[in-house]
Automatic annotation (TrEMBL):
Name listed for the protein in its UniProt record: DUF2804 family protein
Protein species of origin: Pseudomonas aeruginosa
Membrane-traversing stretches: none
Pfam families, A to Z: DUF2804
PANTHER family attached to this UniProt entry: DUF2804 DOMAIN-CONTAINING PROTEIN, DUF2804 DOMAIN-CONTAINING PROTEIN-RELATED
Amino acid sequence: RAAFAAPGGIAGNFGTGWTEASDLRENALWFGGKLSRVLDDVHIREPRDPLAEWRLDSACGRVELLFRPEQLHQARPSVGLF
């Protein structure tokens, strides 16, 4: 699953792999608050290297996104007594 928001009212929500046996899709784009559904499957390509580029694209061509990580974030939860 991938979701993003950008300045200017642009946002997206994409999922893959869990609705393929049905006609349901959670893929959508928002432009200035207006919803635009993406009916085709969106393929999310995540590399093994967390600092490598990763892509989202659809067969219809409406979605072609490239993300470039700027830094590595690692969660280090502290478990135990405070």
